[in-house]
Design brief:
The chain is of the alpha/beta class and about 550 residues long. It is built from 19 helices and 25 strands. Helix content is about 35%, strand content about 20%. The radius of gyration is 25 Å and the shape is globular. The chain binds glutamine.
Length: about 550
């Protein structure tokens, strides 16, 4: 029987990967969502990660990329950020699952005797649990179309049970389920020709699980020519028009427009038997055009530590920060030139910090642990003393407070509990209730996670930027500004321009514009709520200050 959402028949699109990962499944999901929205359809999305980790909170960012925090506090994969940014959605824990989570809920239910004495088996109980979760998310969003991304690539043992879920759903609702394979079509330099064979193999492997793709998104360096399209159609058992060319492009925001060049939304709508309005991708086109028109640079340094893996720079760790800088820069009519600087260099050679003078703005993002911390404090001091716009996110705000306490208030050895539990001046400390949790080794529960309200103080940079008396912003941290030092810091000139509604937790610290063009830190992560269509107000204020300096 068809699944209904508020009287409408629910449709599902699965997106799987072929050949190799990292070629843009997440952006494909986000872009398919975006083009379907531009046809007036209600869309939601889910990500399935084939890990045993129950959520992404315990994964090392250099291995897995950014941990994206949803407003309900759930710690998920960076793809969720792309979904939210492209589709303007507010997703929650129902939109994310891992192998660990799925097994855990099945096992918990078995222990609660909820299977009525059945033998609980990997098949069908695990895929059934997956399907139930997909349908629940679809229902909650009252979605016309639910797009589900399966992490990794076909042919990995890890995601077999998720592919089995596609097969089972397709049998149940043949006309309501589509499968899209995002595959890589290489052009080996020694051959000089685009090769479709790896994709043919990937499709065969997918066929082996009982699933036939409806569309092939051919990721390649170049546009796919007719001959390659024909070849793929023949050998992969799809129609030629269902092979969509997805060449490398300058900006991820071009992808929806590119898909529409191959009329992807029409093809999907037809196959799913949906009724939709005429295309209105114009809004998106305008945003992309504005971004492209911004050619004058604004030079931003991001000072951090999770940048390198072997010989490679990993900007994925800060993908939301990077995107938020882009969104604000485009809105300010500038092209961001972002430079990643490792803070440890300033510890070995403090004079190197002078390089920051060559930038229009400096940003220090979130982080954990002690590596590179003194270097970051050196950088913050330099920005404060040389009036370089500085924006600190989470750890970047805590260290702003440490720097101010040490160098302006003269509190020697001031620090955060995370670095120096013996410090005489713990200006960043842990709250009593968090302490209790840590004692019990309840590390997962020891962080402040997700959306919390902050009340803004009038006549501050923050209040002017937001233009509202209250905001809800997302958190992910264990430590807070120590309430015992708030009076001293304030008397010393630091302005706490936002606090929790009870006034106990400090949410934003800043210097007044009379003292510094932009010196501001947020205890929360504003980067999680920025998008091309609606850049974050604080990022915008930071970039505007940076543009001013650049002049
Ligand atoms: N390590 C700091 C804390 O736990 C900051 C965390 C962050 O930047 N996300 O409070």
């Amino acid at each position: 029987m068809a699944t209904k959402n508020g009287g409408k028949r629910a449709k599902f699109i699965f997106v799987v990967g072929g050949v190799m990962s990292g070629v843009g499944k997440g952006i494909t999901v986000s872009s398919i969502g975006r083009i379907l929205q531009s046809r007036g359809l209600t869309v939601t999305a889910l990500k399935i990660d084939p890990y045993i980790n129950v959520d992404a909170g315990t994964m090392n960012p250099t291995e897995h990329g950014e941990v994206f925090v949803l407003s309900d506090g759930y710690e998920t994969d960076q793809d969720m950020g792309n979904y939210e940014r492209f589709m303007g959605l507010h997703l929650d824990r129902g939109n994310y699952m891992t192998t660990g989570l799925v097994y855990k809920s099945v096992i918990d239910r078995e222990r609660n005797l909820e299977y009525g004495g059945q033998c609980v088996q990997v098949v069908p109980h695990i895929p059934r649990e997956v399907i139930a979760r997909i349908k629940a998310a679809s229902k909650k969003a009252e979605a016309d179309v639910t797009i589900i991304e399966i992490g990794g690539t076909v042919g990995e043992y890890e995601n077999i049970l998720f592919l089995e879920a596609i097969r089972m759903m397709k049998i149940e609702h043949p006309e309501d389920v589509l499968t899209v394979i995002v595959s890589y079509v290489p052009t080996p330099s020694t051959v000089g020709e685009m090769k479709t064979k790896p994709t043919q193999h990937a499709v065969r492997t997918l066929n082996g699980t009982g699933v036939q793709p409806d569309f092939i998104i051919a990721r390649a360096e170049h546009v796919l020519d007719e001959k390659r399209k024909e070849k793929m159609a023949t050998f992969c058992n799809v129609r030629k028009e269902d092979v969509i060319s997805a060449p490398d492009i300058e900006s991820i925001y071009d992808v929806p427009l590119n898909f529409e060049k191959d009329k992807l939304s029409d093809l999907i709508i037809k196959k799913l038997g949906l009724r939709a309005k005429a295309r209105t991708i114009g809004e998106w086109q305008k945003l992309v055009t504005r971004a492209k028109a911004a050619t004058k640079p604004v030079r931003i340094a991001v000072v951090g530590k999770y940048f390198s893996s072997g010989d490679y720079v990993l900007s994925d760790v800060y993908i939301s920060v990077l995107e938020a800088i882009k969104h604000a820069s485009f809105a300010a009519g500038r092209h961001p030139e972002i430079t990643w600087l490792g803070s440890e260099a300033y510890e070995k050679n403090p004079a190197k910090v002078k390089e920051l003078a060559g930038f229009d703005g400096v940003l220090i993002p979130g982080g954990f642990g002690s590596r590179g911390i003194e270097g970051k404090i050196t950088a913050i001091r330099y920005c404060r003393e040389h009036k370089i716009p500085y924006f600190g996110l989470c750890y970047g705000m805590q260290l702003l407070v440490v720097e101010y306490a040490r160098n302006v208030l003269g509190l020697r050895g001031a620090n955060t509990l995370e670095i120096d539990p013996k410090s005489k001046h713990l200006v960043i400390d842990i709250m009593p209730e968090q302490k209790e949790k840590l004692k019990k080794k309840d590390y997962g529960g020891s962080m402040r996670l997700g959306g919390y309200t902050a009340v803004l103080a009038k006549k501050t940079i923050a209040a002017a930027a937001y233009g509202t008396p209250e905001v809800v912003e997302r958190h992910r941290h264990r430590y807070e500004v120590n309430p015992e030092y708030v009076d001293r810091l304030s008397a010393g000139g630091l302005v706490f321009s936002a606090t929790s509604p009870d006034g106990i937790l400090m949410e934003i610290a800043e210097l007044p514009v009379s003292k510094h063009p932009f010196f501001l830190g947020t205890q929360f992560h504003p980067e999680f709520q920025s998008s091309l269509a609606s850049p974050h107000p604080l990022f915008l204020a930071f970039i505007k200050a940076a543009v001013k300096r650049g002049k």
